[in-house]
Amino acid sequence: MKKSFKHFSWLLLLLIPLLIVAGCGKSSSSSNKTVKIGIMGSDEKIWKPIQSKLKKQGINIKLVTFTDYNQPNAALTNHEIDLNSFQHTYFMDQWNKAHKSNIVSIGKTVRAPLRLYSKKVKSVSAIKKGDQITIPNDSTNEGRALHLLQSAGLIKVDSKVELPTPKNITENKLKLKITAVDAAQTPRSLSDATGAVINNEFAAEAKLPNKETIFKEKINKASIPYINIIATNKSDKNNKTYKKIVKAYQTEATKKLLKKYYHGLTIPAW
């Protein structure tokens, strides 16, 4: 009996170091949690270098690409991703109101002035009676696009309506056919429409040249709500790892990448 106990004691002594090593390994892997960031496809080339940089700091990032604006916030609320970087503050606020969610900004990324593009005319003054103009159909960017067309002198909208739709147009002297389509389809609509109001990420994906811009949004105090952001759920707003990700984005290197790939379409906002 004593001999068996002695053998057991030696076996236990041999196993203890192995158990400690195994325990440490488990702790290490749990600390290196992968952070999933939802982005639009055109931003992948901006985030890839940041992803590589953060990996050296022990922060693993998985980029999750989306094709329309309705997906990233739903995925964030459902905890399918941890952060997203695609929207401006105004879009986030309207989403929270509509869906009773608690998404918050943890850092600024870029200003992306909305633009009116055309392959058929060279200026706003060349737009003729009855021409078609397409705009994004999500409520926030639809209203923003109509305000852009108003600034261009093409229409007037009801000033009492916060998020106007084509139904809220109060003056349309040229009787323009203003059609709301999925934001991702606005570049394609240029083959038929005289003009299209296109968000920058989709303009970049479609490789639309700046020379096809016939009007763009002014950058002033009124455009502050349209500054793009990195967002997360309110419960995670103080996450230290997420703050490191914001810091890694807001660098001179990112400014150079934005200039390289977007050619002035987007402007750093930090």
TrEMBL record:
It comes from the Bacteria. Coiled coil: none annotated. Its main location: membrane. It is found in: Membrane. InterPro entries: Lipoprotein_NlpA. The keyword Ribonucleoprotein does not apply. The keyword Signal applies. Keywords: Lipoprotein, Membrane, Palmitate, Signal. Pfam families: Lipoprotein_9. It is a lipid-anchor. Belongs to the nlpA lipoprotein family. This is Lipoprotein.
